[in-house]
Amino acid sequence: MLDARILKRRREFTLDVRLHVAPGEAVGLFGGSGQGKSTLLSCLAGFEPPDAGEVRVRDRILFPPPVPLHERPVGYLTQNDNLFWHMSVEQNVRFGVGAREKAGARPGPGQDDRDGPQQTTGDWIAELRQALGLESLWHASVRSLSGGQARRVALARMLARRPMVVLLDEPFGGLDSAVMRDLTEALSTWRSRLGFALLAVDHQARWLERLGTRVVAIERGRVVHDGSWEELRRSPPTEQMSRLLD
Fold first, then answer.
1. pLDDT score, position 119
2. Which label site among 21, 70, 131, 197 has the fewest CB atoms less than 10 Å from its CB?
């Protein structure tokens, strides 16, 4: 689903990562602060351009040249919900769904709709609304939401377009354990159904392990481990990685 080589020069080091994520696969990006994980996701999402390399989703090249953000089949969620405060919950969730995919339209070309061609975008948004507990909030202003509610709205907005690749950059920061558990379970369920590739960053290994069994560990812009969490815990490649896993 996702094939990438990212080369990005930073003041401290050069990020140089090759990555392959299969359809339906979940991969945790793990490492200490400032090691290049967020920069990697930002380059994959298109928010900053790599200095060199290639980003490909299925048979479509997203870089080079950089494809505009709204044309990328990529969902990107960070700690900041980035909701539009002048809009309602419904308007936020529907924002970004292109005219071709407004309620009543079918998924776009190349999207893996596991529920068959009869589920419209309107049906899918209704499912997200119910599954994420947004029904009672649907017409409310996002200004009135709690942190956990806002995070669920941001998740629904990201998934409304049915992206082929989902990128998560510490999206559970500041949430209590119950909300984090609910969101990770929901993501795992939809990943299995829709077949999107998932790449997630978090500073807590236990939450990444809930999403998937594969981990790519990064230090100073280089991959130092690509395998299972069990292998990483059994044989950490560096002392710093060993401390992070304690």
1. 64
2. 70
